[in-house]
Design a protein that fits this description.
The protein is built from nine helices and 14 strands. A hairpin with a 2-residue loop joins strand 13 and strand 14 (274-275). The model has no long low-confidence stretch (mean pLDDT 96). Helices cover 29% and strands 27% of the residues. It binds pyridoxal-5'-phosphate (PLP). Belongs to the class-IV pyridoxal-phosphate-dependent aminotransferase family.
Length: 295
């Protein structure tokens, strides 16, 4: 099957007792029109998505991605996805995709067409960018004020902070700001000085002998890669912690990484122009583990 690969999906309700979903999947020519102009995903970014990696034919962390899709749907008051249908859609796609190299498989659930009867869903797979050199060299990062205090998700749930919505314009603007300032990536911090996440990644630091990531309150996404990395570290006898991370602790960290599903683990080499210690050997070990996952 050639890439990109596109599958339109007729979403079935979460409580459906179906076990065969084949008639709800429609393979599309990726170059052909597939969405209607009234789509609220394109008109308003009103939908949610996930991107998982497929490495040598193995889709990574399928269940954590589906769980996060369900969580995002609940936050956004979208019809709750049927996990069995999404599992089947991913398996359907993977069976038709090349079984070599790294692919990015994105799946989307949109509110659908204005006044339309049903949500719209699709899955789209492409070859992943070649991230080998950035995994070796790391990234220069700036911190950017996200403009909200810690605890924002509790006082303003309508901001949908913990949902992976399609509204990524701010996240992309933050990456452009990083480039403008001569850096590669961004770490968002709360207005009162706590580390949040990158625009497309989670933050993990090594501090005081522990691996630490900001507690997944409702204000950030709970990264599937970070969770996987913490399982690996805990199994290796390392201490892992979820807690608030003041930005000064990030600046003083022994090492820091941005981690995400497709780029995997990249070391932060510079923060706001100041060098950050790099543990190249650890970074290589993280990526070897992440690439070696078969589930
Ligand atoms: N935080 C944000 C805002 C993201 O967009 C992403 C991934 O795209 C992540 C964190 C990392 O999540 P994952 O490791 O599941 O890819």
């Amino acid at each position: 099957m050639n890439l990109p690969f596109t599958l339109l999906i007729d979403p079935v309700p979460a409580d459906s007792s179906r076990s065969d979903f084949a008639d709800t999947f429609h393979e599309m020519d990726s170059a052909a029109p597939a969405l209607r102009v009234g789509e609220l995903s394109t008109q308003r970014g009103d939908g949610i998505f996930e991107t998982l990696s497929v490495v040598n034919g193995h889709p990574q962390e399928v269940e954590p991605h589906i769980s996060r899709l369900v969580n995002s749907a609940q936050i956004c008051e979208l019809p709750v996805p049927n996990p069995a249908q999404w599992r089947a859609a991913i398996a359907h796609a993977v069976a038709r995709l090349p079984h070599d190299g790294e692919l990015a498989l994105k799946f989307v659930l949109s509110r659908g067409v204005e006044s339309g009867p049903a949500p719209t869903a699709w899955l789209h797979a492409t070859r992943a960018p070649d991230y080998r050199s950035v995994r070796e060299q790391g990234v220069r990062v700036i911190t950017l004020d996200r403009g909200y205090p810690r605890g924002v998700a509790e006082v303003a749930p309508w901001l949908l902070m913990g949902a992976k919505t399609l509204s990524y314009a701010i996240n992309m603007a933050a990456l452009r700001e990083a480039k403008r300032r001569g850096a590669d990536d961004t770490i968002f911090v709360t207005h009162d000085g706590y580390v949040m996440e990158g625009p497309t990644s989670s933050v993990v630091i090594r501090s005081g002998g522990s691996y630490v990531t900001p507690a997944p309150s409702g204000a950030i996404l709970h990264g599937t890669t970070q969770q996987s990395l913490f399982e690996y570290l805990a199994a290796a006898g390392e201490r892992v912690e979820y807690r608030d991370v003041p930005v000064d602790e990030l600046r003083a960290a022994d090492a820091a990484w941005l981690v995400s599903s497709v780029r995997l683990a990249v070391a932060v080499t510079e923060l706001d122009g100041a060098p950050v210690p790099v543990d190249a050997e650890r970074t290589r070990a993280f990526n070897a583990y992440l690439l070696g996952r078969t589930a």
